[in-house]
Amino acid sequence: MIRLRSALALASALFLARTSTAAGASPAPGAQAPAARPAPSAKAPAAPQRVTSVEGITEYRLANGLRVLLFPDPSKQTMTVNVTYLVGSRHEAYGETGMAHLLEHMLFKGTPRHSNIPQELTAHGARPNGSTWYDRTNYFETFQATEANLGWALDLEADRMVNSWVKKEHLDTEMTVVRNEFEMGENDPASILEERVLSTAFLWHNYGHSTIGARSDIEQVPIERLQAFYRRYYQPDNAVLLVAGRIDEARTLALVQKTFGRIPRPTRTLQATYTAEPTQDGERSVTLRRVGDVQVASAAYHGPAASHPDSAALELAVLALIDAPGGRLYKALVEAKKAVSVGGYFMSLDEPGFLYLSAEVRQDQSLADAQAALLGTLDALPREPLTKEEVERARARILKEVELSLNASDRVGITLSEWIGAGDWRLFFLNRDRIRSVSVEDVNRAVTAYLRPSNRTTGLFFPTSKPERAEIPPAPDVAKLLAGYTGDPAVAAGEAFDPAPAAIEARVKRTTLPSGLKAVFLPKKSRGESVTVVLDIRHGDEKALFGKAAVADLCADMLLRGTTKHTRQELADAFDRLKARVSVGLPLPGLLTVRVETTRPNLAPVLDLVAEVLRSPSFPAAELETLRQENLAGIEQQRSEPQAMAPTALGRHLSPYPKGDPRHVSTPDEMIADYQAATLEQVKAYHADLLGGSHGEVAVVGDHDPAAVEKQLGELLAGWKTPAPYTRVPRPYVSVAAKEEKLEAPDKANAMLLGRQLVEMRDDDVDYPALLMGNYMLGGGFLNSRLASRIRQKEGISYGVGSAFDASPLDRSAQLTVYAIYAPENSARLEAALKEEVGRALSGGFAEQELAEARAGWLQSRQVSRAQDAGLAQVLATEAFLGRTLAWDADVEKKVSALTPAGIQAAMARHIDVAKLSLVQAGDFAGAAARARSAPVAAPAAPPPAPAASGTGTGAKKN
After folding, report:
1. The whole model's pTM is what?
2. Environment class of residue 802 by beta-carbon count within 10 Å: exposed (0-12), middle (13-18) or buried (19+)?
3. How do residues 72-107 score in pLDDT, each as one tens digit?
4. Which residues have C-beta within 8 Å of that of residue 495, sequence separation ≥ 6?
5. Under DSSP, is residue 432 helix (H, G, I), strand (E, B) or coil?
6. Over the stretch 128-177, which tens digit does the pLDDT of each residue have?
7. Helix H segments across 453-541?
8. Domains within the chain, CATH numbers bracketed
9. What is the largest CA-CA distance in the chain?
């Protein structure tokens, strides 16, 4: 997986399996594995040496050069093992673009001792992934905190560090998976524009190459080069191992020594990269013409390395420019109605990198005007420097995110991979210190030094007779920079929390607030005194909600845009000062959900502000118009996107309700008309007529005093009565004939398949546990499900493929869903393979061992989910609405534990029928057919050459 940069790329990734692949077998003739590593020495390796400690994280070094970071956090019932290799796309040679990422995929194929890595990850209930970026590659897994799981994970990572199968037979199938991922990125014009701008900004340095690589390199890379790349960089002296969570430091270090310490120190010497990008001597421009629905203007500037002091200043400057609603660019473009959104980032890299700014513009707006406003605002900064208020607002926002991230050891572990790649993990803390202390004057000095027209790459070119050049400083000596650095005192650790249902129930307090809301409190000592709140406000009925989908959505989004006491900016600043993440959404018709993450000392004032947001919104007219444009732009983007077209078409077929009904699935044209027609008066009326504190639930999980929070909530909601009756909108089973449909999406390299069968069942049905587990083996879990093993692992058709089974707790309405992304020319192969695998599960069932392994992984994954405060709070709130406790969850797990293969097959056969599966595919099928017709006829195959020493396989990826 490549780390995604743009919001559009992130949105398209929601349908994807976010990792690399799979199991291996013994080498085929003519496809030998990499040359054998040196055998471990019979002499016991020297004991690990302690290097340094910063804020609860301690670094050790093994005799073979491996750096080890241990981060104990007893408040987590989970452990995270994360291995970062100091190799990324920056280290690739000519013809090797995408090789680091392709190798990331290949390391999920297995080793002689771990021959089916996806199955092992699933069996241990792990949340795994791997990712590749410019300076590093990492592999991680989060799992239930047991010594057995930790020993397995360390042994797995140590083994695949030096003994992975990198075989030609695996490359042949994985290449097409990675190419499918490449094609997915090709669907996003904003992401492609970003790639083109950066490749133009960097003439020589590999930071100008997309991490996914060139398509030709993905398709043609020789296996021998991939094997050599693996042997060169996947060594202990080029890696950093981090273990975080509920660990005993001494025992963990001993396990690390036992697993990784036996790997010998390599004899080769890694050569440092030395290509330096020359100072840019004039503006450069890029024009991209592709099918799409929203215009984009952007600008990139060269900047310093992450270790340079100016990096913190530029990070603050970028946020001060794009922040909504106070940022300079936001005001100049979004408020001025010249664009619908602005975005940007400063990229923290090991060598001098870049910053990137962009604006999205609807087609009925002038792209020229937007670009002029973008560049004009940036060019005016030397004359109109950023103010102290703007910089302090950005500083509060960044420091809030840093502090909240430090409260979650699993997130810190993954975040540190970025800073390890940038030079040293301690840069994370040093950068925070610099953010705290950098002056407004230094921020404006950095802006003036780097954001010069001559240092810029945009969509236009303007020649100048007197170029101004930004001299980029070299990266500092990180070892010297951090010598003796200690950072802040370590964050206070939380308690050891048991996520078993019975253990949670033993400490849960349930009550009903005077307003009528059901309340659930789960107090526990969390790392950094963190606390999470989920508040569900239920309102309306079928009649009251009819025709109000757009109005309801606008109402929910407007609540954080100003109250009678605070403007939108004042609210945002207050939440930043209080270290609070607050969101308001409308996940279902008639359900308004507020989510809060903060710390115990700030909980009371945060709840005061949340109550003000809910009860006293001001609904500024200008904000409504801004919000309307944002929604219209988002809807217009969906018109030609396969991953939006397929769900819309399938939803309209299976939910045949008339327009206006809360269950109606609208077309983009219908949504555009609804958002354009919505008025401020309607939004205000929705709030006044429907919202109140009489119906709903609130769940509080983390470090808090239940009695005090209960009293405060009672006072805050007192008198806020729901004006109209509340009746949940039912979603009964609807008998709909199966349908297959293909939708054309011209010029889109990636296609989407979505299939669904409706099932008349509720989640308390006797067959529900069997279908839950049957689906888990069919298309759930990690990459070893039936669908993934066949369609991704074996045939290499799809990067993301799987299935899901959901059943309502209130209506007899359930559904089995299957999905895949793929190249449109593979449509027939994909459909045939998918139907065949579903049919095989129905007719042949599952093996006993397959069930045992899947069940063990599923049960552990449930424990991991309950160990996350945000997810647990939502579960407790939902079960309060249903009148359930976690005893219901325990009962489901007990029933799953008693399942047999025969029982699962019988239940699936009673309810699932391939013939009843409605399938919708969206993609450029006409273009694929035209390309197939114009392809040259293949020459007769030459006789196979004599067997020769070849190699193993490789993998690749794209931004």
Report:
1. 0.85
2. buried
3. 999 889 999 999 999 999 999 999 999 999 999 999
4. 74, 75, 524, 525, 526
5. helix
6. 999 999 999 999 999 999 999 999 999 999 999 999 999 999 999 999 99
7. 478-481, 501-505
8. 7-259 (3.30.830.10), 284-481 (3.30.830.10), 501-717 (3.30.830.10), 740-923 (3.30.830.10)
9. 86
